[in-house]
Write a structure and sequence with these properties.
heterodimer, A: mainly beta, four-stranded antiparallel β-sheet, 11 strands, about 0% helix, B: mainly beta
């Protein structure tokens, strides 16, 4: 069974460019989460979806960030325009919501560097 | 608002000793779940153990156990007989059932010494 798949693994871009991160959750999982990890702030929850609907985007830092989930098998996190302070590892994770003890399954993350 | 606190940014422990990693949480939801994850230097997030707020027994998974003290709102991870491969970052996380949001503490970096 394939795990959560994120692409790209690494992204280096210049300030001001648009960045799109992609995620394919585990089939059958109805929750999808986006997190950002930095040394200073740890793992921050950006946004999460249930059945493709955004439930809470209060963690999205600014209007430059947007996330979509057009169907159950695909989600994107877009940053436009990107800034150096957006440099971080971005994780996507999914879980099955029907059971309380169902853990989050994480992708391998996208390491974003904005120069 | 829910909150997770891990007060130990770093710990050094001798191989084969037991380790306790602290986690306290704050929530007004009577129904919640607590998770622990391990992040080795390679960066992946590995699920270790889960404790539900209504579980009567402390959770155990192999060398991992959870010291759950509900009244004190603490959920400490205990690793028995530590191994060099246990060196990693460890995160405590909480899910509130009412909104299914899952948030993480800032983590504890554990170093196992040979």
């Amino acid at each position: 069974d394939a795990g959560v798949i994120q692409s790209p693994r690494h992204e280096v871009t210049e300030m001001g460019q648009e960045v799109t991160l992609r995620c394919k959750p585990i089939s059958g999982h109805d929750y999808l989460f986006w997190y950002r990890q930095t040394m200073m702030r740890g793992l921050e929850l950006l946004i999460y979806f249930n059945n493709n609907v955004p439930i809470d985007d209060s963690g999205m830092p600014e209007d430059r960030f947007s996330a979509k989930m057009p169907n159950a098998s695909f989600s994107t996190l877009k940053i436009q325009p990107s800034e150096p302070r957006d440099s971080a590892v971005y994780f996507c994770a999914s879980r099955r919501g029907q059971t309380d003890n169902s853990p989050l399954h994480f992708g391998n993350g996208t390491r974003l560097t904005v120069t | 608002a829910q909150k997770i606190t891990q007060t130990q940014p770093g710990m050094f422990v001798q191989e084969k000793e037991a380790v306790t990693l602290d986690c306290t949480y704050d929530t007004s939801d009577p129904s919640y779940g607590l998770f622990w994850y391990k992040q080795p230097s390679s960066g992946e997030m590995i699920f270790l153990i889960y404790q539900g707020s209504y579980d009567q027994q402390n959770a155990t998974e192999g060398r991992y156990s959870l010291n759950f003290q509900k009244a004190r709102k603490s959920a400490n991870l205990v690793i028995s007989a530590s191994q060099l491969g246990d060196s990693a970052m460890y995160f405590c996380a909480m899910r509130e059932v009412r909104d299914d949001k899952i948030i993480f503490g800032k983590g504890t970096r554990l170093h196992i010494l040979p």
